[in-house]
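Why do we care about 3D structure at all? Because function follows from shape, and shape follows, mostly, from sequence. That is the central idea of this module. The next example makes it concrete: a single protein chain, its amino acid sequence, and then its structure expressed as tokens.
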Amino acid sequence: MKKFLFAAALTTGLTASAFAAEQINYNDVKLIKQGEYLARAGDCVACHTASGGQLFAGGLPIASPIGTIFSTNITPDKQTGIGDFTFTDFDNAVRHGIGKNSTLYPAMPYPSYARVTDADMQALYAYFMHGVQPVNQANKPTDIPWPLSMRWPLAFWRWAFAPQVKAFEAAKGQDAVVARGAYLVEGLGHCGSCHSPRGFGLQEKALTSEDGQLYLSGGAPMDGWLPKNLRGDQHDGLGSWTEQQLVQFLSTGRTAHTAVFGGMRDVVVDSMQYMTDEDLTAIARYLKALPAKNADQTAFKYDDTVSKALFNGDDSAVGASVYIDSCAACHRTDGKGYAEVFPALAGNPVLASDDATSLIHIVLKGGILPSTINAATSYTMPPFDTRLTDQQVADVVNFIRNSWGNKASPVTEKEVAKVRKEVNAAAYGEALK
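And the structure:
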């Protein structure tokens, strides 16, 4: 079996450029600094640093349909990390999904990292070898039952669903800024890992914009959050966002109309806030260039009917009284919130998706708008899991999703109960016991 895997590595993993890279001076300060920036752009810290753990030492549990995978130690420790990796070893793992002893689980987004250029791979290697503090921490075994725990079948997954390494090349005549955005989004940013739908083999149905309109059209719920549609759809996508708003959101986690939450919160905190304005602009311009998946959607139009009713003391609509008691102080009776503090609910594309998992989750467990380099103040939304029954949560969610011009499908008490269990929210009244 080892001979088989070694042969596979030779046929799919090694390139002339990889061999040539061994001659590069990886102690070069400038190269290490470039690699640090690229590691930020790739958000490597998100998976390879456990909560309360040391930087890049691994141990973060990653849930999958077949069991829990623990991220690995990628510090330059020679015993437990990657300190004895050659550049070829590093390149095989990152861009090809081939570890030193076996194929990697696709929890490592190597299908996206295949787009990374040779030069950037060399900078990343320099950083992880010479810019990261080594940590002696053994990797944890996966919590996946046999026979699913066997690694050798993953080679077939790789051949079926992961592309042969083809570093990104801008299309002929493509705008340079859009091309840079495409490289960052499709490659290092691996945005499709969350924001694109997956198939029967848990593979991304589209890896780049060239693969069609499924790319970045929204993913399945992860950890109780729904990765949103990043295409140009008016209701549930980015059609209503301006390029400037996107840049501000990626840099600060907030705009005049919305605020970051869920998994994207970590992306902003760990990665995006450290990126240059030029790269954030490139990302935003590329995303704005993606056509809508559903071109029939029309632009949001504000309706003041509910606002007038609430202003006049009419809370007879189902869910309205819960909204007045629990939500209106921050999000206002007109649903417009407070700029860069409490997000608007009117016209918020997050609320328009068919799946209301994210909204239910944040009502139950609350959230924190993080502080960043360019927005130092943090704000907290309290949890309402112990204060509201499943039916009350369903009622207020439906009220929010269908007021001020919002239009979305109804949410049931059963759906709320399901999310409450999945996100480990407290039971109604639990704090009163």
